[in-house]
Amino acid sequence: MPADRALSEDTVLEAFDDLLARGKLIYGETKPVYVTDRGFDFEFRICQAFLTKPQLTGPQSNTEIRKFGPHSDIDFADDKLLLAEFNNGTHILVLNKFCVSRPQYILLTKDSTRKQLESLGLDEFKSLLEVFGALEGGERGRGTRHWMLYNCGEEAGSSRRHKHMQVFRYPTSFRVFPDRQPGEVVVPYKHFLRYLDSNRNPSAEELMSIYEELLEQVGRPGPHNVIFTSSWILVIPRTKANFDGADGNGAAMMGMVWVTDEEKIRRWERLGPARVLSQLGVPLPMER
């Protein structure tokens, strides 16, 4: 599929539903559980897809299943997973096999030697802008809004080594803290946020420059999460992926916590959700 052709949501959902019916991807409707702790809002969801999702430190996926390249650890279990190539073929957009939402995408490097512990590069931002343009109808403010998540390194919550970004529909049932008024939310960890000019579309070069500036503010190379929308870009330095049995990726750091069962939610509640986030990142004083 050519990169300059808008992706039809009907076509994507048709492929998604067919793959789901044939057991080639895993997804189930979830009911949110809302919690507010020390001024920070959380939305917990129990996701059946995570029960069989391989992790870097646990059992790996079936080595006999085709992958996205000779060095990839991401399953290419069916041709319908592949949707399009972008940025002159540096990246491919595929349907995620382990889904929290319908649909859910992975934007991964076509070069399977690229690793998840690398920072984002210019080709990532070029590909991402093309993907957002295709999924959202080519113009900001039209079509369905999306957001990108990048878990850089195992400590940031990455579960695969092949370099990839995740793309989701923007949450409608939960308001993340960058969309709230300054001072309205107490964020329990260090983070570096830049709002984008709402009157113009930034270039990939401009986004890359902003990202590099945010990394400089972090002050140290290492694991981090990147969350990008058409309105802002956020970098969160990470210290660990798991705190006393409560783990999370970049979505969890935003308050959207995806777990395998109710006991995991209870563990987060016993530990204190805001405290968990502070320990997964770089702690800040919690005033409330």
From TrEMBL:
Residues 19-172 form the Ap4A phosphorylase 1/2 N-terminal domain. Residues 187-283 form the ATP adenylyltransferase C-terminal domain. This is ATP adenylyltransferase. InterPro entries: Ap4A_phos1/2, Ap4A_phos1/2-like, Ap4A_phos1/2_N, ATP_adenylylTrfase_C, HIT-like_sf. It comes from Marasmius crinis-equi. Gene3D superfamilies: 3.30.428.70.
